[in-house]
Amino acid sequence: MKKQENPSLRYARYFWGSLLGFTILLIFDIITGFGVTSAVIGFLFPGKVINLKEPTDRPIILPMRKEDVKIPPTLNDPYDDLRVLVVGEIPEKFKNIIINKHHLDVPSNPTMKEFLNMTEDEYISSLERFQNRISQHEMYPEDDRLVQRVLHNLATAKFNELYEKSGGTQFKMIVKYENGYRALFKPMRLQRDQQAASSHYYYNDYERHNGEIASYHLDKILGFRRAIPMVGRKINLTSEMFPLVDDELASTFYISPSGKVCFTGVCDVFCDTSHGICGDPYMLEGSFAAFLPRHKNATRKVWRHPWRRSYSKRRNVEWEWNDNFCDKVKQIFPYSEGRRMLDLMDMAIYDFLIGNLDRHHYETFKTFNTNETFTIHLDQGRSFGQPFHDELSILIPLKQCCMVRKSTLKTLLDFHKGPQKMSDALRESLKDEPVAPILWDPHFDALDRRNVIVLEHIRNCLKVDDEK
Ligand SMILES: Nc1ncnc2c1ncn2[C@@H]1O[C@H](COP(=O)(O)OP(=O)(O)OP(=O)(O)O)[C@@H](O)[C@H]1O
Ligand SMILES: [Mn+2]
């Protein structure tokens, strides 16, 4: 007689069988990139930002056609045709291209403290003071002493607790200090003169702590003041880090064959011994970012960048084939009004100068109850990787929209004219960095060269308009 199977056993078999089948399908979907998984998640959670990065070797279709590549004729061109526009009145026909609106040309620019009617205890740390003083239109004011104090503390104060920050593709750590400070730490992975391999996709590349530092300084020099203050520091893995991390992170520490103290971290993608993070032999350099405020009124909104890259060889994004893409974007709120579009143009110029292709999302503060607030320049880890290559596709937003703040254009022209070139200004700003030198020399030449390329793009916009 056939043995009767216990029904609960049968159900268990069905259950595990289906689970296994579903898992195999899921893995298949993710590997092949059909995108069913992300579509389902997107359908179920429409408001949620889904950041499905695919750290696999997938080609990106770059949108550059031959005729787009107009490399500037010469570094010696004074660009007088553009200069007259920033010193004088902008002719009517160019008023849609050169926009006479500085980011502080606003009726009011409250700080978080003012906007939220916060009372400030006189004993709070400089970091909290800095956080309370972030305003609707910039991260910190011009010629600011407080930021200097914050950076000094980040670079010297004693640590209290260190833990790995989950999420993202690469190891990063939240650092708590004895003085109540907090920072976001990204470790050094590459030497200053190690270039991003041109045959790698940029998102497979390590982030650069020195890129973060240099980018903060450049943002300040360009007068944007939208980046998070950032400083370099060396940390002793044996005496400063190991005793302060939790058991899980501590268990990933090891001594490398060459006698260096290393750890892998416990993140998803790059956290194994072939990607170990090592000291020299036990001192590890990193970037320390001032922590953004954490109170419930300082939350941030995450936006998909309209010109984000597709991260997939099967999916093509519209800006890659539609040169009129900007007209569409301009009709959509919040790009249809206020400062946002101009901020994106500044961001494209900034990213082009630092060589950052990784601007998939950007964030703004919700605090001020309006989208009329600055875009935070956050996550410049994939910058300053290729000093000999100028990635023109980063400038596509500028090329397709043909608009730029007059103040930004003036800054670029002033640096181009000299006597202080953009490279000189950055060199000057970086010279007292605790882990200086921050950049490999060729990056400075790249900056001045790229500045001309931006100017040439703007000149092209004016020409096209003239021909109409
Ligand atoms: N200084 C900071 N203070 C508070 N939160 C921060 C700070 N810097 C970054 N974050 C938060 O941590 C997240 C990850 O930061 P970041 O993008 O720099 O790391 P990442 O490793 O490059 O991540 P990803 O791989 O997603 O690009 C950000 O989205 C941001 O919300
Ligand atoms: Mn990143």
| Helix share bin | 25-40%
- Give the strand content: 5-15%
Number of helices: 16
Ligand set: adenosine-5'-triphosphate, manganese (II) ion
Taken from the alpha-carbon principal axes, the silhouette is: globular
Q: Kindly report how far apart the N and C termini lie.
A: 91 Å
H/E element order = HHHEHHHEEEHEHHEEEEEHHHEHEHHH
- As laid out across the biggest beta sheet, the strand order is 2-3-4-9-5
Count the domains.
Answer: 2
Largest sheet geometry: 5 strands, antiparallel
- Secondary-structure-based class equals alpha+beta
Runs with pLDDT <50, length 5+?
Answer: 31-35, 45-69
Give me the count of strands. 12
Mean pLDDT level:
88
Return Rg in Å.
25 Å
Characterize the structure shown.
It is found in: Golgi apparatus. Keywords: ATP-binding, Disulfide bond, Glycoprotein, Golgi apparatus, Manganese, Membrane, Metal-binding, Nucleotide-binding, Transmembrane, Transmembrane helix. The active site is at 358. One of its GO terms (cellular component) is Golgi apparatus. The chain has 468 residues and is an alpha+beta fold. The protein folds into two domains: 66-106 and 299-467, no CATH class; 125-290, no CATH class. It has helices at 7-32, 36-44, 80-87, 112-115, 126-132, 145-156, 209-221, 237-241, 247-250, 318-321, 325-331, 340-354, 396-401, 406-417, 422-430, 442-467; strands spanning 98-99, 159-164, 173-177, 182-187, 230-236, 253-255, 261-263, 277-278, 283-290, 300-304, 361-365, 404-405. A hairpin with an 8-residue loop joins strand 2 (159-164) and strand 3 (173-177). The structure holds adenosine-5'-triphosphate and manganese (II) ion. Residues 207, 358, 379, 381 line the site of manganese (II) ion (MN).
